[in-house]
């Protein structure tokens, strides 16, 4: 194959579409309109209603909801949890991807399945298991209470549940990417005398940086937005163990709808930033 | 000749040429065990005094069975509708050019990125009796919020990106020559779609369906607000775990969770073999 590179690069596949492999204009526009309606109804409306509901009672109420001390402490806790969990799962993601993609060993498929496991588990179960391990009736419950250490219904529990839920994100993004890139460049570097860290920083990391960033962004969005698992282990102590999503729920259940949607709009902003960064990264990758 | 020796050399040297196998593998397995495997095993080796008899009692309790029925049926319905709508969205995104396409494409990911609690409150606001859509449906006698229909709708929102993002890449890679050939042989566009395109898209569609279904069974945040949480009618299995925990019934919560976990593992197995099948059939 190597000797048969054509002089003229074949036209990209898109231009292959002839009139015979596309639908008539009428069908095309009917389908586009239908798809647009589905998108508007199913995805855009929930987004719009957050903004409308949050501003329904004016900017003052909106601002008051965001500057409320409980909201501020929820924001702080959410940022803190993400600041602990995202770096840990990033380190894991990179090392796991290195082990899985740069070497051959038995049971590789099984290991990848295990890494994916938290995606398959209901978030509520992701919280429950830490209650069973660290709760007062759990494995370490009596020992912990004897030593006056709080894990569940406190920060460590929230961190653990979030670690569990966001566990696969970075690894999941890197494994297919590094699998595709193979090991040739790293092997070339080693024959040139590079050692481990040099190979990683100079060869591997530049190759995977956008994929890595994408994985981190997704991991972060989930870490800040996780609700079910955190809800189980948090204990819902206002101003102490409430994260932003839990604060949305509390305000909503107290019929403070405008305030609830105001806090929700913060999380919506997080989602929008995540989506924008994602599409920027994808475009960067395409070039 | 040259190629085969090279490949053989590659296979030999690849085994341990690069450094760091021991440490990365060791760390990965340790971290995996501490964060995921050990905590999950607490469900099996629990200290809640859950015996087989108790497990069976809880698992066959009428309210528990009803919650599984609600969870499974709404997740299946939502995934099925998502498969149809997702195919439409993916088709339009891959095959047509139109203004606003980039925004269209980006919006598909919103359910992935949006915290589920936010989805839950906003869907409830839309579909409650005096909400934008709820107030339109009320005169027709159609109630969405606090009915199984509302749960289905929330799960549709959560599941739609799974279908679009599995079908989209396959559709992009689809060779148009086959369609061209079918057209040359006199097949109409619809016939070509049914006979040529659909068989290729079936494996990813099924995978997308399974992914959306699996996610739907365990989903909690987006559902609890809109479901109304009435036992026997709109109480989903994850919520039942939550309410048993709130009553300090740890054994009961564990029993319900074990069954739910079993279903999730089955789904994981199905999805893995589906993806294997899809990869094989695309070659």
From TrEMBL, chain A:
Residues 75-278 form the ABC transmembrane type-1 domain. Keywords: Membrane, Sulfate transport, Transmembrane, Transmembrane helix, Transport. It comes from the Bacteria. It is a multi-pass membrane protein. InterPro entries: CysW_permease, MetI-like, MetI-like_sf, Sulph_transpt2. The chain crosses the membrane at residues 29-52, 72-98, 110-139, 151-171, 212-237, 257-277. The keyword Membrane applies. It is found in: Membrane. Part of the ABC transporter complex CysAWTP (TC 3.A.1.6.1) involved in sulfate/thiosulfate import. Probably responsible for the translocation of the substrate across the membrane. The complex is composed of two ATP-binding proteins (CysA), two transmembrane proteins (CysT and CysW) and a solute-binding protein (CysP). This is Sulfate ABC transporter permease subunit CysW. It comes from Paenibacillus phytohabitans. The lineage of its organism: Bacteria, Bacillati, Bacillota, Bacilli, Bacillales. The gene is cysW.
Automatic annotation (TrEMBL), chain B:
It comes from Paenibacillus phytohabitans. It is a multi-pass membrane protein. It holds the Pfam family BPD_transp_1. It comes from the Bacteria. The complex is composed of two ATP-binding proteins (CysA), two transmembrane proteins (CysT and CysW) and a solute-binding protein (CysP). This is Sulfate transport system permease protein CysT. CDD domains: TM_PBP2 (cd06261). InterPro entries: CysT_permease, MetI-like, MetI-like_sf, Sulph_transpt2. Residues 68-271 form the ABC transmembrane type-1 domain. Part of the ABC transporter complex (TC 3.A.1.6.1) involved in sulfate/thiosulfate import. Keywords: Membrane, Sulfate transport, Transmembrane, Transmembrane helix, Transport. Gene3D superfamilies: MetI-like. The chain crosses the membrane at residues 21-45, 75-94, 106-128, 140-164, 205-230, 250-274. Belongs to the binding-protein-dependent transport system permease family. CysTW subfamily. Its main location: membrane. It is found in: Membrane.
